[in-house]
Amino acid sequence: MNPVLLATLRRHWQLIGTIAAFAIFMYVHLVFFKPTAARYRAAIKNAGGLETVFETNVMQTALPPRVYALATDNTLDAQDAQDRGGSGALGVILLEDLGRIAERSGLSVASSEPGPVTQEPLTAEIRAHLKLRGSYAQIVGFFDELSRVGSLNLVERFQIIPSGPNSDLLEVWIARLYLKQSRNGS
After folding, report:
1. Alpha helix segments (H runs only) across 47-150
2. pTM (2 d.p.)
3. Which residues, at least 6 apart from 57, have a Cβ–Cβ distance to it below 8 Å?
């Protein structure tokens, strides 16, 4: 190698290092960062853009059909929710539904009692307490069936107590949520 060229390169090693670092950063940018940034921009565009997040006057994206159907199936008029929740009708409906689910699962209802109704400005939450008797497989079937119904149910807690070789006692506290809708559609 030419000694003059080698001496020049040695004197300007910072410039050569800077060019090498720039080349490495460009490679990382083109191979990794640019495709990731493109996917991020596409996701923001599919969501309706950033303006939908920060501006309230921009039309929001529509809910998926299954989510919309679930919300509408579990929506009550605000006054109706207040009246039916106060009279105990919603608690009776919850107990009847849970009794049918238990029957389909092969469980027998040992006892059932409605719980308190919590009225919030936008929701009504109805609770129930049940004691069911059956095998462990039937208890699992009950929870499976409960997850498949089109209601907003929440198993708050449960306890399985063995009471025989082929029989268990399931004590379960369940809540159902109803969304309230005012008469003007909000």
Report:
1. 51-54, 65-73, 78-87, 89-105, 136-148
2. 0.62
3. none
Q: Which of 113, 91, 110, 98 is nearest to 143 (CA)?
A: 98
- Whole-angstrom distance, CA of residue 165 vs CA of residue 121: 48
Residue 17 shares a structural domain with residue 106: no
pLDDT along the chain (186 residues), means of 10: 86 91 94 89 73 57 79 87 88 92 93 90 92 93 92 92 87 92 64
How far is the C-alpha of 132 from the C-alpha of 158, rounded, in Å?
A: 11
Count of structural domains, the chain:
2
Q: Domain limits at 163?
A: 65-181
Asked if residue 134 belongs to a domain, the reply is yes
How many other CB atoms are there within 10 angstroms of residue 78's CB atom?
Answer: 18
Same domain membership, residue 97 and residue 14: no
